[in-house]
């Protein structure tokens, strides 16, 4: 019996760019040495000419979130696979930080299919029209 172990040096990579009159951020977890893409997230700061009511007035939207590799059942863990190891949650946490701190958004929304809504509910999102959304409650300090 021969066991071949692959040790990954996964790091968060960020790429920012302008697309369709809006600002987008592409986040990914990658192992650049071995040219492996673990997962990705596309975040957009909605422009003022957004026509979707749910995305108007200072909203950032996650247009895409994927963690690659073999499919692992939701309640299962397989340390040799990327799914259910926390990469998606870490990408969402970074997207929320960017939306709040850099975009000054009051809300972040996710384009979500019916099958992934419970995942986003666990992260504090609620159904908002066709989206799952989280409103940021900012506490202002008074001196």
Question: Care to give the gist of this entry?
Answer:
This protein is α+β, with helices and mostly antiparallel strands and 143 residues long. The protein is built from 2 helices and 7 strands. It starts with 10 loop residues before the first strand and ends in an 8-residue tail after the last strand.
Strands side by side in the biggest sheet? 1-2-3-4-5-7-6
CATH fold descriptor: Aminopeptidase
How many strands appear in the DSSP assignment? 7
| Overall radius of gyration | 17 Å
Number of discrete domains: 1
CATH first level: Alpha Beta
- Could you state the order of secondary-structure elements as H and E? EEEEHEHEE
Number of helices: 2
Report strand %.
35-45%
**What is the overall silhouette?**
globular
Structural class: alpha+beta
Question: Termini, distance in Å?
Answer: 67 Å
């Amino acid at each position: 019996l021969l066991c071949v172990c692959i040790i990954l040096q996964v790091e968060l990579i960020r790429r920012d760019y302008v697309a369709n009159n809006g600002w987008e951020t592409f986040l990914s977890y990658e192992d650049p040495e071995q040219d492996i893409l673990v997962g990705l997230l596309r975040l957009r700061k909605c422009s003022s000419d957004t026509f979707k009511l749910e995305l108007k007035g200072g909203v950032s939207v996650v247009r895409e979130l994927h963690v690659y590799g073999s499919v692992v059942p939701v309640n299962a863990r397989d340390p040799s696979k990327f799914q259910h190891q926390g990469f998606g949650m870490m990408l969402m946490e970074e997207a929320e930080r960017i939306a709040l701190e850099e975009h000054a958004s009051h809300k972040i929304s996710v384009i979500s299919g019916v099958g992934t809504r419970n995942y986003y509910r666990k992260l504090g999102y609620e159904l908002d029209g066709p989206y799952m959304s989280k409103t940021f409650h900012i506490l202002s300090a008074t001196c």
